[in-house]
Write a structure and sequence with these properties.
Layout: H1 2-12, H2 25-34, H3 40-53, H4 57-61, H5 65-72, H6 78-95, H7 104-107, H8 115-124, H9 135-144, H10 153-163, H11 169-182, H12 201-210
Helix pairs in contact: 2-3, 5-6, 9-10, 9-11
Length: 211
């Protein structure tokens, strides 16, 4: 089943990628931190001014909270994200010579960076077989049947990386996110127009209820 699902994703969305706008690993890290509980559309409106003011870890590390907050206040949780961004930049500068690490454990040492964010950076920037599980990935994988009885993101991640070929994991992360964002929505999934419905466990259950 996994291979059939991956083949359909590849056929229908071969160039799936992050919708966050960035020019380098540092900018993506900032954008992903901002994206927690916030839409990519909103983040992409915030980051141009932020990146213009603070183009690198060194400049962001020297920023005051007021300077950062004023530029990100329209996103969710701006107070905590302000502290995380400045703390992250300081640690990058002091401990990692201003370079975003490619190691998931090292990434998680940075303020504001949990496992999901670390996996995004490792996958998108460094093309590592890391599966970031957000609410979209968790929901879609469970509905389709790619995961079974997963009760938290880590369990879902472990199941997905077990069965998805390593070379496909970075792209599969985006396939699942984008499918959840535009087709397999939380409240009203568009099952009738879904190219996966013939394989989807959730859709099959709906059909059985109607019979």
């Amino acid at each position: 089943m996994y291979q059939k699902v991956l083949d359909l994703f590849r056929e229908n969305n071969p160039e799936a990628d992050t919708e966050l706008h960035y020019s380098n690993p540092f900018q993506l890290l900032v954008a992903v931190i901002l994206s927690a509980q916030c839409t990519d559309v909103r983040v992409n409106k915030i980051t141009p001014d932020l990146f213009k003011a603070f183009p690198d870890p060194g400049s962001l590390a020297m920023a005051t909270e007021e300077e950062v907050f004023s530029r990100i206040k329209s996103c969710s949780y701006p107070n905590s994200k302000t502290r995380h961004l400045i703390g992250m930049a300081r640690m990058l500068t002091e401990r990692f010579n201003g370079t975003v690490p490619d190691d998931i454990a090292q990434l998680q040492q940075l303020p504001g960076v949990g496992r999901k964010t670390a996996n995004v950076i490792a996958s998108v920037v460094y093309k590592k077989p890391a599966m970031a599980v957000d609410t979209h990935v968790f929901r879609v994988a469970g509905r389709i049947g790619l995961t079974r009885n997963a009760t938290n993101p880590l369990q879902a991640e472990q199941q997905l990386i077990r069965y998805i070929p390593e070379k496909d994991i970075p792209r599969a992360h985006h396939w699942l996110i984008l499918h959840g964002r535009y087709v397999c929505k939380a409240r009203k999934p568009d099952c009738e127009n879904c190219f996966l419905k013939s394989l989807c466990k959730h859709y099959q259950q709906l059909e059985n209820k109607e019979i």
